[in-house]
Amino acid sequence: MTPRIDGLQYANWSEDIFREMRAGAVDAVHVTITYHETFRETVLNIEAWNRWFERFPDLIFQGFTADDIDLARRTGRTAIFFGAQNPSCIEDDIGLVEVLHRLGLRFMQLTYNNQSLLATGCYEAHDTGLTRMGRAVVAEMNRVGLVVDMSHSGDRSTLAAIEHSTRPIAITHANPAVWHPALRNKSEDVLSALTQSGGMLGFSLYPHHLAGGTECSLQSFCEMIARSAEAYGIDALGIGSDLCQGQPDSVVDWMRTGRWTKGTDYGEGSAAAPGFPEMPAWFGSNADFTNIASGLRKVGFSDADVGALMGGNWARFFADSFGPLPEAAK
């Protein structure tokens, strides 16, 4: 039986959510621990997670390697893998890439919507690709085993990251733009380059990324996955739900604006409704992952393919990505 893995969540963590992970048989989750935080603020967030691990050792533990997925399954728990949705946590210091990896960071986006020191976000008018620091940081991420994530990046920057990286990269939470043309969704050129290079795409359940938004049907979502499998092959695909369960609407302000503006940026949302959108009726919590598996079977996927999409492909990617390159391990 293959593991069940979610490629990204940013929930308002609680015992209830950890228990829902177990109800949904979720063996591992890549969780966002930092958006615009500095290095020291990110460390404080790791401290907060350490308290969660101390309080609920029967439900969750910190994952460091792909072997921890098997440990989670054997012990009936969920392995938590840390990720950053912005490179703010390394500030302007490439040495912090290795430090954060040693603390458990396993994914880092090079941008979050805006231009960063490393690359261009998908909301900028002009995408200049990887910067000088971006190329150096990608090489360092490759060396230590920190996955390059381009979920919020522009097309040119994403293609440059795929080309420059010596290891496959990930787009942990997005959907094909041909299905729904949100700025955050990805073009056919990007998805082709990603999947042909061995990278991974995690399909997002966040309503702004869905055709029909909150009203998107399970069938439509699963048919989109089926078309993607036909176009790019099934081995490069997984789920990256972008579940923000239980988060107050005020958190959107931090996600979208951080400290970079005195104004308000609603990003993918509407100025009339800046908070979190309502989730589809068939996916509102970690307990609902079984609905996705059932939907995939209904659109024609075999049990083996469902297992690959629901976590088997992520497990292989974790195993190939989280350790140092052989020459770096000497």
Number of helices: 11
**Count of beta strands:** 9
How many structural domains does the protein architecture include? Answer: 1
CATH superfamily: Metal-dependent hydrolases
Uncertain residue ranges: none
Looking at CATH, which topology would you report? TIM Barrel
- Beta percentage is 5-15%
How would you classify the helix and strand content by structural class? alpha/beta
> Could you tell me how far the N terminus lies from the C terminus, measured between alpha carbons in angstroms?
35 Å
CATH architecture title: Alpha-Beta Barrel
Largest sheet: 6 strands, parallel
Task: Please supply descriptive tags for the structure shown above.
alpha/beta, globular, single chain, TIM Barrel, 330 residues, six-stranded parallel sheet, 9 strands
Question: SSE layout and pairings?
Answer:
Elements: E1 5-9, H1 15-23, E2 28-34, H2 39-55, E3 60-62, H3 67-75, E4 78-84, H4 95-102, E5 105-109, H5 132-144, E6 147-149, H6 155-164, E7 170-171, H7 188-196, E8 200-203, H8 218-232, E9 237-239, H9 250-257, H10 289-298, H11 303-321
Parallel strand pairs: 1-2, 2-4, 3-4, 4-5, 5-6, 7-8, 8-9
Helix pairs in contact: 6-7, 8-10, 10-11
